[in-house]
Amino acid sequence: MQPGVLDVNLKMRSFLAAAMVSALAFAPASAQDTSKQGGTLVVSLPGGTPRSLNPAVQSGVATGFPGTQLFTAPLRYDEDWTPQPYLAKSWEVSKDGLKITLNLQENATFHDGKPITSEDVAFSVEVIKEYHPFKSMFEPVTSVDTPDEHTAVLNLSRPHPALMLAMSGQLMPIIPKHIYGDGQDPKSHPRNNQDVVGSGPFKLVEFKPGEHVILERYEGYWEEGLPYLDRIVARIINDSSARAIALQNGEIQMSTFENEPTILSRLKDVEGLTLTTDGYGGVGPIDWLAMNTTRGPLQDVKVRQAIAYAIDKNFMLKALLRGTATEARTGIHPDSPFYNPDVNTYEFDLDKANALLDEAGYPMKDGNRFELNIELPGFPGYKPQTEYVKAALAKAGITVNVRSHPDFPSWAEAVGSMQFDLSFDSVYNWGDPVIGVNRTYLSSNIDKGVWSNTQGYSNARVDELLNMAATENDPEKRKALYKEFQEIVADEVPIYVTNAVPMHTIYSDKVGNPPLGIWASSSPYDKVYLKD
Amino acid sequence: MSDETLHIPVEKARSPLAEAWEMFRQNHLAMVGLAILILIVLGAIFGPLIYPTDPYEMVWAPFSPPGQEGFLLGTDYLGRDILSQLLNGARVTLIIGLAAAFVTVAIGITVGALAGFYGGAIEEALMRFTEFFQVLPTLLFSMVIVSLFGASLPMITFAIGVVSWTAVARITRAEFLRIREMDYVMASRASGAPGMRLMFTVILPNSLPPIIVQSALMVGSAILFEAGLSFLGLTDPNIVSWGQIIGSNRQYILEAGYTVTIPGLAIFVTVLAISLVGDGLNDALNPKLRKR
Questions:
Q1: According to DSSP H, which parts of A360-474 are helical?
Q2: In a domain? residue B13
Q3: A63 touches chain B (CB under 8 A)
């Protein structure tokens, strides 16, 4: 194979006549669905340049999009949170919940033609367990048995219902043992970004950091007739206004993880474009105001409640986020089946806030009670909220000093080392609460860097509930456990959750089957097609 | 006529300052600029006292257009009073402008004077040093300083000053080169005046006119510089400056253009006034343009 030569040829043709060429090539092959076959889909790559294309060692939505096209996972999820067969054509969970058997597709191959076997599944689990940042995903998996080539059995030390979601999307890519098992560090393996041998519906043509990732239909994909698209060009456009313009003039046909209110309101009425918030339940991004419960007045729960009362969530939703976002009340995303909306909501009430602060022993002196710092995140989008909190808390006599951070690492250092009072933050659920929610509340996860329990929050009952829910296989019982958990953390407000991040998928009318499942663009695009 | 002595009209000797003022006064544009500038300075000093609304307080619904509901210049995206922000911001903006110009002039004069006075290797070294700063992209360099050391008011002032002193240094050096060969300097040197004294009491006062003009213009460009940095978000979020008002409202430019137009106009008018005054000073202080 000479990817370079092939690449140049394809490039020249595809931009000019991709539709025509592909129509000719595939029209006879699938007679009844000619309109779905072929074409080049141009999208924007969410989250900028991915650090790695291998989701086994790298989290984040930038890796998620190319990663899920390049690598298959055992399962996929539909919009109703129901698991569907993918690489595993069927699966069984043993009664005690300690064994999960996956029956793999028999004709599935890697992009170099070698068959995908249970050995590769076992190897992938091993790599993910060791190198993926989400340790809780596969932590209870003790071993993977491979009774035959197409059967893999995951043995668990305890029931672990979160594993079902962790076997889908970008969380469990099946990577080739014959490539990554060569002894090199998988985290920095050279084949993570170049000459990737994947297992998914699309193979890598070219990855140019800062420019694009180009993917091409894998002819040897196990499911006949799929994927529909010939090619996906994922352009890396870091500026949101530039993406909006590209969408408007049809340069790109779809963009995911768009959440800037001004951009959304600008594109809302453009003809030929659809905006939707569907598809982000699994990723579960929420915005919140984190409060460091180990410092100064914030140690007092009354002070934290007073802050929640002094902040007008409606104002934030309507004026700052312009109605693009939905309200969230707990650390679990509102689209999750475990979400419990019946918790203390802290309706805006300045008198109550002032009364609570008086009660807590911080009387008003010359219009001032005490001072707090708020860290302004080094990533864009939280300036209005931060300035709002400064103005809103001033009315309750709390002087808030804004500390701005020039970049992400500087902010992450301040919050990650718990050297902060208040800060807005945006944290993702990543499917099951065990993966993305426990880390924020478990007392065993205090002070483990950014996006851990940086609030220093510790409550024995919360620990107990979360640990019980993590091993409870009965969905109804789990739900009840999470319900109580959400009531407690809403009362004690170590974080004041404001809203679901208004993540939107924006797509042109030409795109069929846009990714509206629970993983948004971190799901396979094998069934996405272009309409004529 | 016989009892009268011969009357030769002798012009009364006037101080150079008065003479310059005379020249300045004849420049109408410069006078207009000065008037505007005085108004702005008065507004900055007394404005917040006369109009005590807190610039951070949310006083009304967001995006209330100018003139309605009793808010002369409307409210911003959080419902804060823009007039109050403008008045309070004027202080910060002017202080940054003046302080940064002061830093510029201090560095510039020191480097230029040493280079021009001593010549030789010292001059070589200092001028190469100046050139090094001259070729640095100024906005980028100041962005680096501010992001590295934090966006506090003194750091922003320092960052602006440290990237824009080169022009002053070059002008000072040129003046020193010219003046140090003049007779009165020779005379002073011959009578044993030490180097420092020669530099700062003999040569410097005589080389001041072009430096004054340059520093006046510096104030204007420092204000623009600060606005640029604030626009990019490199600003102390706990102070209001005009650039910062523009920066935080720029997202809403399409639906509430006035939130950025008003502070923008304020910057424009101020910088224009400073330029006009600088121009007038140039005319007034440049001996070649003087009517003799």
A1: 383-394, 408-416, 433-436, 438-441, 460-471
A2: no
A3: no
Nearest-angstrom CA–CA distance, A459 and A221: 49
Angle between helix A383-394 and A301-310 (nearest 10): 110
> Rounded to an integer, what distance in angstroms lies between the CA atom of residue B263 and that of residue B286?
34
Distance CA B223, CA A28 (A): 68
- CA dist A395 → A152, B190, B242 (Å): 60, 71, 24
Q: How far does the CA of residue B126 sit from the closest CA of chain A (Å)? A: 33
- Find the domain containing B150 and state its range: 54-285
Asked whether the predicted pLDDT for residue B139 surpasses 50, the reply is: yes
In a domain, B47, yes or no: no
Q: Give contacts of A395 with chain B, Cβ < 8 Å.
A: 57
- The one-letter amino acid code at B109 reads I
Quick one: pLDDT at residue A23?
39
Q: Domains in chain B: how many in total?
A: 1
Nearest to B244 by CA among B264, B268, B273: B264
User: Which is more confidently placed, A320 or B174?
Assistant: B174
User: For chain B, how many helices (H) and strands (E)?
Assistant: 12, 0
Asked if the C-beta of A401 comes within 8 angstroms of chain B's C-beta atoms, the answer is yes
Cβ of A319 within 8 Å of Cβ of B233? The answer is: no
In a domain, B87, yes or no: yes
Contact between residue A275 and residue A257 where contact means Cβ atoms under 8 Å apart = no
Residues of chain B in Cβ contact (below 8 Å) with chain A: 54, 56-58, 62, 77-80, 146-148, 151, 233-238, 248, 251-252, 254
Task: Answer whether A466's CB lies under 8 Å from A485's CB.
Answer: yes
**Residue where the block lists tokens 């958990």:** A485
Report pTM: 0.77
| B188-209 confidence digits (pLDDT tens) | 888 888 888 888 888 888 888 8
The ipTM estimated for the assembled molecules is: 0.70
Query: Looking at the domain assignment, is residue B26 inside a domain?
Result: no
State the pLDDT at residue A187.
84
The two structure tokens encoding residue A221: 């994909």
Summary mean pLDDT of chain B: 84
Residues B5-21 have a mean pLDDT of 71
pLDDT at A20: 41
Q: Cα separation of A428 and A410, whole Å?
A: 20
**What six digits make up the tokens of A173?**
């890519």
- Measure the CA–CA gap between B43 and B37, rounded to whole angstroms: 10
Show the low-confidence residues of chain A (pLDDT under 50). 1-32
CATH number for the domain spanning B131: value is 1.10.3720.10
Quote the tokens at residue B54: 């807190």
